[in-house]
Amino acid sequence: MVGHRYRLKTPTLAIMDHDGHRLPVTIPVGGVVLVVAGLPHEDRLVDVEWEGKRLLMFAVDLRDRGELAEGAGA
Question: pTM of the predicted model, to two decimals?
Answer without folding.
Answer: 0.83
